[in-house]
Write a structure and sequence with these properties.
Low-confidence stretches: none
Number of strands: 0
Helix content: 55-70%
Shape: elongated
Largest sheet: none
Structural class: mainly alpha
Number of helices: 3
Protein name: AsnC family protein
Mean pLDDT: 89
Radius of gyration: 17 Å
Strand content: under 5%
Order of helices and strands: HHH
Distance between the termini: 48 Å
């Protein structure tokens, strides 16, 4: 049996999942903007990757063509 507590503060799980998907999209857009700003300011891929907690290669692969 699913309790109200298991459903989280919003109640039904599907609306909460939709809300979280929107939050995830907002975070991805904000991250992209900050990576672009960092590159324009002269920060290295190594520094950006460190701030993101990923490898330099992963950061460059994800944001290198922007």
């Amino acid at each position: 049996m699913i309790t109200a507590q298991a459903l989280g503060p919003e109640g039904e799980p599907l609306p909460e999942l939709r809300r979280l998907a929107g939050v995830r999209s907002e975070i991805a857009r904000a991250e992209e903007v900050q990576v672009r700003r960092a590159r324009n300011a002269g920060y290295s891929w190594q520094a950006i990757a460190g701030a993101l907690g990923v490898t330099k290669q992963a950061a460059h692969k994800k944001y290198g063509r922007q």
